[in-house]
Amino acid sequence: QKHELVNDFRQFRDSPLLKIWIGPVPFLVLFHTVLNNPVHMDKAYAYKFLHPWLGTGLLTSTGDKWRRRRKLLTPTFHFSILTEFLEVMNEQAEVLVEKLDKEAGKGPFNCFNHITLCALDIICETAMGKKIYAQSNYDSEYVQCVYKMSDIITRRQRMPWFWPDLFYNYFGEGWEHNRSLKVLHSFTSNVIYERAEYIAYIESDSESDQGMRKRRAFLDMLLKTTDEEGNKLTHQDIQEEVDTFMFRGHDTTAAAMNWAIHLLGSHPEVQRKVQQELQEVFGVSDRPINTEDLKKLPYLECVIKESLRLFPSVPFFARSICEDCHINGFKVPKGANAIIMPYSLHRDPRHFPQPEEFRPERFMPENCVGRHPYAFIPFSAGLRNCIGQRFAVMEEKVILASILRYFNVEACQKREDLRPLGELILRPEKGIWIKLEKRKQQH
Ligand code: HEM
Ligand SMILES: *[C@@H]1O[C@H](CO)[C@@H](O)[C@H](O)[C@H]1NC(C)=O
């Protein structure tokens, strides 16, 4: 399935084929690279540093293990559970709006961490069924370590001399890495034990079923699920997946929402159109957002997609070619590594004329007709695509809608000030600086 994806690309991109060597590994870059510094793009290496934390969960596993896991996990993202998660998203959005309210009318501030902590609260509660109050309690050791770990891994990727373990342990951050790892693993491990006991208790006592039933979390489904032979996942299997969701499920959406806020803040006409759509759905009410509302926000959805086009949270990913094939007339042997870059792919003027312009209208259904299905791939494509994409879009809608219902946003940075850094996640170097103005209360 992987090489299909690669094969299809050549039909619409005729840039020269480029081969680069990363250490001993040759890589094909399928499109001219826009992101600077391709040195740390080796999938094997990029992902290697995730292994101590994530083990071989869905993101990092391959072959049969991946296939079995994916089959088990796909139902956990079913629509009915997403509806339950909507409640969590609304609650955390409310906390965020209260925090932002304190900044309103006061001049420029960096909203990056406010939004990231909100995303972290949402993923903790939906993945593990555990509230961590990241938005109100910065001191949580777990929260700090989630933050720190992404930084530590990114730094190591940037410094090839720290790739060998020996050097890393002696001269690098090996000690700090191990300390954070211990905090991360013992936290999720405890949550899993607690939750398993709770589920056993609920199941043994049918009367408590109505009274004290908690909201479901991904973890509950992982604890209950069985494969064809009736085998349950082990504690370690579950831990890998929970840690993967914690990592993959908040940084990505947080970055996406921040980029969208910047773009909305620098395009007042787009912002007004979103607010008009919100006005039509919610009127003067400040009620939470329900699933029906979500369907009535098509323009906001276009804004989300157009933001992901310009700033895809995952700026590149790597694949190995599974069969000999030809790309742009070059023979590519089986086993070659290819890098796919949504960041440059999304800027192909044949599919997106004047690609640097922010134009949500591009994603209106009538304007998508005839576009190549792989011209826009923020969530990757094919069998190995993002399992959390519906979750992600839903979260973005709830948070962005909540912000724009209460505030007008003004961006304080120009596009050239943003300096997107493309490592594991595409992030603005110095955060996202905005000004907020409270909208007139309508009642
Ligand atoms: C805007 C938000 C998001 C973006 C842009 C995004 C993007 C991606 C991309 C490009 C991949 C493929 C990576 C690769 O092949 O190396 C991927 C995989 C994955 N994503 Fe997401 N993602 C987002 C949100 C989420 C969320 C919210 C979750 C979980 C709740 C999630 C969980 C995963 C997992 C588990 C995989 C591995 C799937 C597999 O290999 O079978 N993602 N994502
Ligand atoms: C970190 O943990 C690994 C694996 O347990 C170990 O090999 C390494 O020596 C540790 N590093 C430091 C600096 O303690």
TrEMBL record:
Cofactor: heme
Binding sites annotated in the UniProt record for heme: 386
Pfam families for the chain: p450
Superkingdom of the organism of origin: Eukaryota
SUPFAM superfamilies xref list: Cytochrome P450
Catalytic activity: androst-4-ene-3,17-dione + 3 reduced [NADPH--hemoprotein reductase] + 3 O2 = estrone + formate + 3 oxidized [NADPH--hemoprotein reductase] + 4 H2O + 4 H(+); testosterone + 3 reduced [NADPH--hemoprotein reductase] + 3 O2 = 17beta-estradiol + formate + 3 oxidized [NADPH--hemoprotein reductase] + 4 H2O + 4 H(+)
A molecular function (GO) term: aromatase activity
Record EC number: 1.14.14.14
InterPro entries: Cyt_P450, Cyt_P450_CS, Cyt_P450_E_grp-I, Cyt_P450_sf, Cytochrome_P450_Monoox
Record keywords: Heme, Iron, Metal-binding, Monooxygenase, Oxidoreductase
The family this protein is said to belong to: Belongs to the cytochrome P450 family.
Summary of the function given for this chain in its UniProt record: Catalyzes the formation of aromatic C18 estrogens from C19 androgens.
Record protein name field: aromatase
Species per Swiss-Prot/TrEMBL record: Oncorhynchus mykiss
Name of encoding gene: LOC110534411
